[in-house]
Amino acid sequence: MISVDISKIISRIEELFADCADVIKGEVSPCPGVRLYMVYIDNMIDRRTIDRHVITPVLERLKNASVPYGGAFDIVKKTLSTLDIQENDSFDDILTFILSGDTALFIDGSDKGIIIASRGFGNRGVPDVSTEVTVMGSREAFSEVVRINTALIRRRIRDTKLKIKQLRIGKRSQTDVAFMYVEDIARTEAVTEVERLLNDVNADAVTDVGVLEQLIEKSWYSPFPQAETTERPDKAAASILEGRIVITVDNSPFVLMLPVTLNSLYQSADDYFQRFWVMSFTRILRFAAGLIAVALPGLYLAAAVYHPALLPSTLMLKMAEARVNVPFPAVAEILLMEASFELLREAGTRMPQAVGGTLGIVGGLIIGNAAVQAGIVSPIVVVVVALTAIASFAIPSNALVTGYRMVKFMVIILTAVFGLLGFWAGMLIILVHLSSLCSLGIPYLFPFVSRDISECADLKDSLVRMPTRFLKKRPYFAQNNQQKRM
């Protein structure tokens, strides 16, 4: 509760914000018997709003006025009626508002404080897309400010059924988290489950959407993502209209989309902006690329070491000739080159954007060529590893690519030990694991499994994309009575 004695409030504020140079605190007495105390954080508020629309009109209204003790609260409230203000009698809540960028005004004789919406800290505004570039479509990307992100989605879905629920997560960070959904499209049980998961988060701080994803995912041990991330407002808005739930976290330029399936991770915003023939062919390439990114090194190892009879005679002789002067076994070649390419990938990510791409290309060419000339690896291994890396770049979801990179090494090791049997065992383990995953009750491999529950409608937007005029039903994410969208 808030004391009516402003001296006690001032003492408590001074104690709590001791050694906080960015916290601006000030007391003013515009007329006899009236004491006002204002608190805000520098560079987190709009100073022009406070100076012009708060301080100046309040001081002019109270100047030389005869105000009884405790009567200044109603006068100040009426003076600020044109602004976004609210009363609050909880001292802890008022502290949270101050730390979030609002301004608190205390008045002697009143047991309530006035919160003035004055957030105006610096941000990037609406930046351009950097990680999900498309040929057609919007160039807007999410910002680090949660209210800008919700506004970008609201601008695309002008429906009163679009609901935004906001809460604070993190005992110390008090991070603003908002989740968005269309009330009559999203499944009620999914909305309830997301809200429960967010409320159950018990951590000191949630600093990014990636941290929140790890705290709410069910199968935390899996290398595969159980929530889809995007920086594109148009993609997030489209997912909401499909019945999914979008979670945006303050200070993060990405949002989470739930539920997620393996099929949705292969989809790109560009898929729906171009002709269905072109994008269906591209989809098939992406799924093939995913298979190559996981299986190609292990399959080469099985054929080269254990089952050379699987290869044509000419190719088998060429491979044997290329490996004559190589001192290492085939599995060591594969692991050495894969590790080198992973190091190049990581170095390119950490380098400045202007030179990161150049480093990857030049480094790959130089290392691959030098390794072949030095007789450390054979040319066919360089080709296999390069094809594997290129295939991984064709997949839209970076989180899915990371999962494939991890399980790829498991397949290589099993193949090195057990040959072709180990290769198929590795692929079967991956398939069984993917089959065991669920996201808000939706099977991870849907619609390739359990497709009958949607009468196979979701298959129209899976391995191939049917023409837009045929995509008349929403995915299975939506409520049963809201399946039709066209």
Number of helices: 16
Radius of gyration: 29 Å
Strand order, biggest sheet? Answer: 1-2-4-5-3
**Main β-sheet, in a few words?**
5 strands, antiparallel
- What letter string, H or E per element, gives the SSE order? HEEHHEHEEHEEHHEHEEHHHHHHHHEE
Question: What form results from the Cα inertia axes?
Answer: elongated
Helix fraction, binned, reads: 40-55%
Number of strands: 12
Stretches where pLDDT is under 50 for at least 5 consecutive residues are: none
Span between termini: 54 Å
Structural class: alpha+beta
Structure description:
The protein is of the alpha+beta class and 486 residues long. Helices cover 46% and strands 12% of the residues. It has 16 helices and twelve strands. It has helices at residues 6-16, 47-62, 72-79, 91-99, 146-154, 188-199, 209-216, 233-241, 262-265, 276-306, 313-322, 330-350, 353-373, 379-393, 398-418, 420-436, and strands at residues 23-28, 36-41, 85-88, 103-107, 113-116, 162-169, 175-182, 228-230, 245-249, 255-258, 438-439, 442-443. The strands form three sheets. A five-stranded antiparallel β-sheet has the order 1-2-4-5-3. Strands 6-7-9-10-8 form a five-stranded antiparallel β-sheet, sandwiched between helices. A two-stranded antiparallel sheet has the order 11-12. The radius of gyration is 29 Å and the shape is elongated. The two termini are 54 Å apart.
